[in-house]
Amino acid sequence: MFWIETGHIPSAILLSLGTIEDDHEEVFDSFDQVIIVYCRSGNRSQAAMKTLNNLGYENVYDLGGITTDWPYDVE
User: What is the four-CA torsion angle of 45, 46, 50, 55, rounded to 10 degrees?
Assistant: First the structure.
């Protein structure tokens, strides 16, 4: 899986951009919880943030690209 090959932030939950609308209620506890999204380059995470906002999530933040913006070790 590409996500594993490029690394991920420890304790991150994989939620594909293509399945957010179907799976969000199984992944997130409430619409006001803090959600941080990221991807390899920042493009998909921007789209994920917009989708989650449109679904009613109020505290969604885009970390950007893990390969460019994350300063710590990845798994």
Answer: 0
